[in-house]
């Protein structure tokens, strides 16, 4: 067994231990993360990254992966759709001993839609090994000129309503036996989400590409660039993340 594979096996055990820890946690969003060192490198991918050579990825420094399982369109109808490479990516990542979490790109504008998205995600992963969190990716869509757009943005939800959507998604995820997590950027977490209203066991995955993170709250995962390059991923760029140990 190679050193990288051994470390990945240890991380898988760590993920299971983390899940158990979260189930038992009574309060607070700071949770222990069990792996060697201060942080572990991971990727998040979708069909936008094309066909992935997971064997090649397994030989890199990547220790885990978050895979998109589906998304809601940001038009008025908000149709749900499956990521066309989700099943293949989950199967192949697990085959090569890479711990997997999943995310759903949300455009939910109310709690019922959030539950619908979570149920979609849970159904998509029911035959796969998922040891890391199931994530609601809640962010505003952007037009070609960079301006914010889409049904979530246009709904003009309050910070409390945004938090309620995340909690509704988390309820379904938790009831299905998975760990809930919210992904967004510093702008939304700081200005458009009541972080104190989130359920205590919800983990935070922060997207912030600045040299110094602008979000002042706690988080467990940090997407620090969307311009990474990893062997086995044929797209020019891939999102890279750090999973931080408890300080």
From TrEMBL:
Which UniProt keyword terms apply here? Hydrolase, Signal
For the keyword Hydrolase, the answer is: yes
**Signal sequence, start to end:** 1-25
**Do you know which Pfam families this protein is assigned to?**
Glyco_hydro_25 (PF01183)
CDD domains xrefs: GH25_LytC-like
Instruction: Establish whether keyword Disulfide bond is in the entry.
Output: no
Superkingdom classification of source:
Bacteria
Q: Could you mention a single GO BP entry for this protein?
A: peptidoglycan catabolic process
Q: Which Gene3D superfamilies match?
A: Glycosidases
Q: Which GO terms describe its molecular function?
A: lysozyme activity
Q: Which family does it belong to?
A: Belongs to the glycosyl hydrolase 25 family.
Q: What is this protein called?
A: Glycoside hydrolase family 25 protein
The protein's organism comes out as Candidatus Scybalenecus merdavium
